[in-house]
Amino acid sequence: MQVTTPEMEPTPFRRDLLRLEPAGLYCPAGDFFVDPWRPVDTAILTHGHSDHARFGSKRYFAEASSESILRSRLGKEIDLAPKEYGERWKLGNAWVSLHPAGHLLGSAQIRIEVAGRVAVVSGDYKRQPDPTCVPFEVVPCDLFVTESTFGLPVFRWPSPESVFDSIHRWWRENQAAGRTSLLMAYALGKSQRLLAGLDASIGPICLHGAVHGPTQLYRNQGVSLPETFTVSEAAKDFDWSRCLVLAVPSAQGTPWLRRFGEVSTAMASGWMAIRGTRRRRAVDRGFVMSDHVDWPSLLQTVKETSATTVWVTHGFSNVVARYLREHGLSPGNTLDASPLETQFQGDAEDSEEISSSPEDETGS
Ligand SMILES: [Zn+2]
Ligand SMILES: [Zn+2]
Q: Is 70 exposed, middle or buried (0-12, 13-18, 19+ CB in 10 A)?
């Protein structure tokens, strides 16, 4: 079993499979980048969040169901070749295919095979069920590139059923007290996942404009979501107190909220697992729901891929890489794990800076 320290260079072979360049993760054999943060000739994108899908590359490849999301974010005119999950194609000397990441609609892991060696760049991913996207698929590989947004033992997600039970209870309590329920979440991905799990028989569901846009893209892709309306469609004397309003966090404290009368505020985010976050964000309730892997699922996934080399990107990359190096995942099995300096910042969705990046929440 190969034992290396993070300071050691990857073997020459792996450099040919995948390496870090100033523009991002690069596959020399196929002459393409994965989620580059600078304009390049060929970019393969894992998903439509703004820290992964950046403007300016000459041509893009991405999963077919993410096409409308990417065109709405990067421009209708981009040169984008849609690929189905599991479809293999060749770029230079590399075979490439996309596999479900379970993060949001059209999110993909990129599988790269060069001369029988396989690298998988997972992008952002989760293992929890989400009716709005295809579930994560374990792809065996030699080199696995994982995110670590929530890579600390404190992060363990409750089941989605129990989270939705809590949301529904909160909604009913608010109705009984004559308060409007204001639930805040990231516009792309999280909002649609929430929408799909909400019990629309409890009351009407209103969408903030920034949530409505991406939601329509999901509906156009055939994702079934409950009926919703926007503020401009409501009658003047509408009784908001029975309503659940789904909004972006940047709506908090704005005049837009005045129409709703008395509100109870809540936020759905992985960060709500940390004591104190709810108070800092000044919301009445916090619901723990994330579109990223939690600590146990991260370790489980690394193990299931059978990778011998793991590169850890955005989040707690040093902690996770050190843990994997020191503990391995089974007795006597050492992992070559190192943190990777990327420019993936974590989605605004699950970042503490969520309200400071309104540009990212427009969903346009
Ligand atoms: Zn993401
Ligand atoms: Zn990300």
A: buried
